[in-house]
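Exam revision sheet. Question 4 asks you to relate a sequence to its structure. Input first:
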Amino acid sequence: MTSLVSFPVFDRQGRFSPLKAAFLLAVTLPGLWIGWRLATGGMGAKPITAALHETGLWSVRLLLVTLLVTPLRALTGQNRLLQVRRMLGVSALAYALIHLGLYVFDLKFDLVKVASEIILRFYLTIGFAALMAMAVLGATSFDSSIRKLGAENWNRLHSLVYPLALLTLWHGALQSKIDASEHIVMTGLFLALLGTRFLRRLGRLTPLWLLGLALVTALATSLVEYGWYALATGLPAGRIFAANLMLELVPRPAHIAGMLALALPLVALAAPWFSSAPKPGYSGTRQRGVTG
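Answer key, structure tokens:
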């Protein structure tokens, strides 16, 4: 029974879980697709650089999806969503480790140069710090760690997910240099996920408040984009901010983040069809963290 429970497609009772199997397939497919394109020459003129970029993106995407699980559970009352949160968090860590491995491979396994680059290049320093924090959360994501650390200490440790997510987004934006559009979108979505937690604590996780959150997400993403181009590039940030109001230039990162955040009030409206059970809160040992 223990061996079955430890296998990703089985639940705690050792029964096959279609939900976990579907998510395992979903998180594996991007890596298989990247590997296939590397093997067949489909990654362009700089295949390792392209693979580095894509694995980094998938790590951040999966980290955000991991953070999405708790709000979805609160909105729908579907406790079974917790079955896949640990898998999603560990998958985000796996893509981050592959990302680092590809970087080491690109530098021909010269570990001295890898270490010096991480120390000397700021975007690599914060990326490596985020990876180390993610590795700690991954290593302590199991029930045995909760018992050893205690619920309070475990929750405090797994609160690192929020600063590490910001570091990861910052690392990706710096690496992308001028075109940081996707990382700006993901930063807006991260702020929206923080907003859902704030609304939950206020007891305002309702369709109307979530609609307001979607609008705030769009505005906040615009401000993030403005701040990024004003501080990190020499491009005219004011014109880029004004582009959000030009219909011929849509969709901008703010529009994309706002439209994606609109899914939250729609889920809240559809919640009665998901479950008639009382919606759970965020408190409790298994409610926080990347992989818990």
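Marking note for examiners. The chain has a mean pLDDT of 87.
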